[in-house]
Amino acid sequence: MAGCSNLPSLFNSIQMKIEQYQIDQHNDSLFSRHNNQYIFLQEQLGEQGIHAKDIVKQLEAFQVAIPSWALGTGGTRFGRFSGVGEPRSLEEKIEDVGLLHALNRSSGSISLHIPWDIPGETQPIIDLATSLDLKFDAVNSNTFQDQKDQELSYKYGSLSHVDAQVRKQAVEHNIEVIKHGVNLGSKALSIWLSDGSCFPGQSNFVKAFQNTLESLQEIYAALPDDWKVYVEYKAYEPNFYSTVIQDWGSSLLFCQKLGPKADVLVDLGHHLPNANIEQIVATLMMEGRLAGFHFNDSKYGDDDLTVGAIRPYQLFLIFVELIEGMKRANRASDTYAWMIDASHNVKDPLEDLLQSVEAILIAQAQALLVDRKKLEQARNENDVVLAQQILQNAFRTDVRPLVREAMRLSGGSLDPIALYRHLGVRNELLNERGKLTVATGL
Ligand code: LRH
Ligand code: MN
């Protein structure tokens, strides 16, 4: 949206912050156009018996956790093209998430990865996050890399390793991560294991599974009563023949053997080509074992691209199952973990994350438009055409005025990326942090 070029850039040199008056000024210049679009859609939906305000309320309540490891420029094995003004510390990462949350009021928590983001003194970190209205979501352990001061290597695995000493080291790391999370007020440990093999014959699948289960049981026993453990699966990479926790089935098996505090984390990029992820989601919700998501998008492998950039219809279909499942389980949306897990090779990380959060809210809003009663009726009459019509009518509705209204009512921007660019945020970060700063993470 054009027409906000007269806003002054008023950043203080110490800590990067977007002031409420800057957002309000920006919204004032955009409001009339937005409101016309919003009222038009509100009337359109009203004719279908849908109350726009109810959907806006649900969008306002929906908070997405931002990964601490995706605030810098990522890279691939073929290279990394560094960005500028990247966060140099956990404090600056929290500041960056604070910028996102100020702009869209839907990025209200940060998910840390240990040891990439070990909090030094906890209280100042908590105070900074609180000052930016942020919480700490799940904490992620890391036994897929060797740290320089590490005694035993994870080259051939961690929780599944044939050597009990390596498994012990990995269990202790996860328990350490829980401690960091407890100090920060987090309520969940998120585990992704790269454990597996690259060649037939290399691994005893059953022993690897049993070793992993034993190790996870020790970690499970260390969880505080009100904590959860998320078990993330992945079909392949960095192992290219077998992965111990390779799919939703193996993750669910582990969770069922561990106990009620363990649930399955679905990373959208972790499936074999053309997997029906919305059906996996429906099944996990039916079993009450869906932890939540690592949202991203991909065309081929674990590409970690912007959410909704490649397959927005799949994301919509996933939210259709999520909303159905939450209704069936009578569970509120904040009882699930909504997290982004992306890596930015060619986009400004903050712009990429703003696009991802918007794509998630758009998919949720579209899915909330689906006339469930009519859809079930069409299904019961095997009226395949009508069923598709009902879904695609919702998917083809431009719900962006609802998403913008939710951001505006929550004190956010009507056009976060336009304001981000107008205020020259990246340039301010460059001035504050310098050109060649590199953020820890992927
Ligand atoms: C593995 C993964 C996992 C993280 C890592 C950063 O591919 O999705 O969630 O720990 O990315
Ligand atoms: Mn992930």
UniProtKB/TrEMBL annotation:
It comes from the Bacteria. The keyword Ribosomal protein does not apply. This is L-rhamnose isomerase / sugar isomerase. Keywords: Isomerase, Manganese, Metal-binding. InterPro entries: L-rhamnose_isomerase, Xyl_isomerase-like_sf. It comes from Dyadobacter soli. One of its GO terms (molecular function) is metal ion binding.
